[in-house]
Amino acid sequence: MTSDPNGPRNRLIQLIKELAVVHGKVTLSSGKEADYYVDMRRATLHSEASWLIGNVMLDLLDEAGIEFDAVGGLTMGADPVATAIMHVARERGRAVDAFVVRKAAKTYGMGRQVEGPSIKGRNVVVLDDTSTTGNSSLQAVEAVREAGGNVQALAVVVDRDTGAAENVREKGGLDYLFAVSKADLGL
Question: Per residue, what are the HEC states of 118-180?
Answer without folding.
Answer: CCCCCEEEEEEEEECCCHHHHHHHHHHHHCCCEEEEEEEEEECCCCHHHHHHHHHCCCEEEEE
